[in-house]
Amino acid sequence: MELTLKNKLLRIRIFLTMNSLTLIGMINRRIQCRLTHYLVVLTFFVIQASTAQEIAILKYGGGGDWYSNPTALPNLIEFCNESIGTRISPKPATVETGSEDLFSYPYVHMTGHGNVFFSASEAQNLRAYLMSGGFLHIDDNYGMEPYLRRELKKVFPEKELEELGKDHPIFSQKFTFTDGLPKIHEHDGKRPQALAIIEEGRLLVLFTFESDLGDGWEDPSVHNDPEDVRRKALEMGANIINYAFIK
């Protein structure tokens, strides 16, 4: 059966990403990463120009509830489409960490409460996706932080999570947050933190910790958050989506 344009581009992108040393030869690693990134970003634009924008929820292993907050992402999508002019498909996709379909989404969301596990091949696939233009937003729903730190070391053994300053552009995309990441849901009385893995100034991974944005995105009846708190969560989420789409 003949491949669609989207699948052709997807296979070309994966081939270039996973085999760049063979294709490009013995050149500086930084140049290699830049070339691969530009090729993948170009295919993202081609795909998005011909189809509706799509985002996905990451289905990971380890037993954690990757499926928690089921109304959160659909509500955020609706808010973004109404307030910042996106045209994201109303129903988010579900994508597994080791799947080649991961490369089809400019923004992937990850959440949960407990254990996280990436196999070696899943970690390699996730790294390739992120280094070639993808964006992973992890929102701790409470309890996943120690497991996540352990597994991210499989993906980026050479990198550490860095806290973003209040002046980072992600806090002033479409909505301004002068104090940085807002506090949405209380757990341990700790301050909210926006932690990131960064490559040459570009956010690859954003980990929103002790904020619980997803609780604020859920239907109002789920957590009974005040309207102003829920609005802050949706506006911060819209900033993240906007950043991921234009980075």
Structure characterization notes:
The protein has 247 residues and is α/β, with parallel strands linked by helices. The protein has two domains: 1-51; 53-246, Domain of unknown function DUF4159 (Rossmann fold, 3-Layer(aba) Sandwich). It contains nine helices and seven strands, in the order αααβαββαβαβββααα. The protein has helices at residues 5-18, 20-24, 29-50, 72-83, 120-131, 145-155, 213-217, 220-223, 227-246; strands spanning 56-59, 93-96, 108-112, 136-140, 162-163, 193-199, 202-209. It has a seven-stranded mixed β-sheet with strand order 2-1-3-4-7-6-5, with no helix packed on it. Helix 1 (5-18) packs antiparallel against helix 3. The longest helix has 22 residues, at 29-50. The chain is globular, with a radius of gyration of 18 Å. Mean pLDDT is 85; it is low at 1-9 and 47-51.
Give the helices and strands, then pairings.
Blueprint: H1 5-18, H2 20-24, H3 29-50, E1 56-59, H4 72-83, E2 93-96, E3 108-112, H5 120-131, E4 136-140, H6 145-155, E5 162-163, E6 193-199, E7 202-209, H7 213-217, H8 220-223, H9 227-246
Parallel strand pairs: 1-2, 1-3, 3-4, 4-7
Antiparallel strand pairs: 5-6, 6-7
Helix pairs in contact: 1-3, 4-9, 5-6
